[in-house]
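Can't paste images in this forum, so I'm doing it all in text. The chain is below; anyone willing to post the predicted structure tokens underneath?
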Amino acid sequence: MSSPRWSDTIRTHYLSGAANQFVLHGNVNDRLLLPADDATGTPARIGNLPDFLVQHQLKKFDLVLSYELGAGVRIDSGEPLYRQLRPADDLPKDPPGAIGYLDHLLRFLANVRQLKPGEPPSPQTTALAGRNIHIAILLKGADLIFPRPQNHPNYQLGSMASVVRSWSKESHFLGQNLAVFLIAENLNDLHPLLATNPRATVIDIDLPSADELRAAFTHLAGRYPKALSRFAADPAYPADRLAGATLGSIESLLKTREYEDRPLAEPDLAELKKSLVEKDSQGLIEFVEPTRTLEDYQGAEPVKAWMRQDISLWRQGDLEAMPMGYLLCGPVGTGKTYLVECLAGEAGVPVVKMKNFRDKWVGSTEGNLEKIFNLLHALGRCIVFIDEADQALGSRDAGSGDSGVSGRVYSMMAKEMSNSRNRGRILWILASSRPDLIEVDLKRPGRVDVKIPLFPSHDPVEAYRLIRAIGKRFQLDLPKDPPEAIRPLVPALVTPGAAESIAVKAYRLVKTGGVTATEALRDCLDQYQNPVPADVMDTQIRLAVREASDLAFVPEIFRSHAAEAEKEP
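Text version of the structure:
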């Protein structure tokens, strides 16, 4: 089994002398498959990140120490050597004491390396004089040991972070075979002195790839034969369907199914993926496996034709003309969310809806975005849907009212949306009824390549057909063409949201009033008032027309409507 890519990065930077300090963040609390060790006869097994570092990455090191809040300083490897060096030391538990102790130990070893054999004659140095000991230090939960200061400087935190930072740049430490690992779930939660240290290598630990999950499932098949009995011929098959979930959550699922003697089955996988991904994301996203297609969306034929062309390119793997993202704009209730679900169902990919990732604590919002991005990179092909994008995405010049959070959110989103490695893997879809409030840079080609306006019905006949189509979901038996008694009552500008509201009201009258669907609809329309005020509707239509990247998306009546409105004083 090959090592993860991040493991190779550590090896390259350490052996080349480019860095001796590594900040590991992202999916650091997950389980992973540890490779077999032929030298010791140890078989492959499931472990955690510190296990991998100690037993695989650092197995040739003489001494490996770790520190974690609550656990204190521990000897993970090389205890006989440690006891020879420091036979009487008590290992501290409090952060200042632990960091001070580790700093003293590293300086002690640097001095031992400079000694000549027999000088000075002490038991713990005579045998080690002149020896360059390979030592590694793991700082687990580094974002808890060295958290980002909240609102005002914390000098104790700063001094501790400064000590650890010095291990990456002072000459006597660089002369040692020293490797320091800071393990933090969120880089933005770590003290800036360490998170932005130019002498450290920052490594994002991704969620397991499909290849890594396949290897893990093959290994787990022997441990959980009942849970995976229906995939005995190909135990790696579920890996592709569960991509985006952590190995830890998958292992927990298999343990439960094994205990219950309840095998995984093909129909389970989509729902299991949804529940596992949402659990791992800690409520930051909503994961949807759509069942609708573009056939279920009424109207907007030029828009659907364009989207089907993009889906065709996506399936062929021809990504040169594949957009990085869409902007859906138009009045409230025009079915933006529904269209996204239909597009995803047509393409056969899941939809990830970003929920409220903002937090009141400094750094937490950025940390939440980190988690979301790590998840997206592991999912494979997916659509990321951001509703109310004018509110969610922040702005470049947000001022100081929110401690700069909005500006940092804007910067992180802009960088991620323009990442060319995401083309063909992540399709960003922004939705807003006020696209004018979204930063221009976020709407430019390379982030949002196609801007699609959605409109209400433009005449009473189209409005009736929309109401009738939605009414079918409620078993309303309405004639194909609007009856004469209804035709003059049908308003022109009806959105899918308003049409659904009308259909629900008609359904209630049919069920409770003993009337026909046609009579119920007539009564509903007789008292109908558009839920969106006329002036608001007019403004949002004009904004949608103005944003459209192709006038073919805009019905002729709305083009002239917007043009006339622009001429008004």
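The chain has 23 helices and 14 strands. Residues 95-114 form the longest helix (20 residues).
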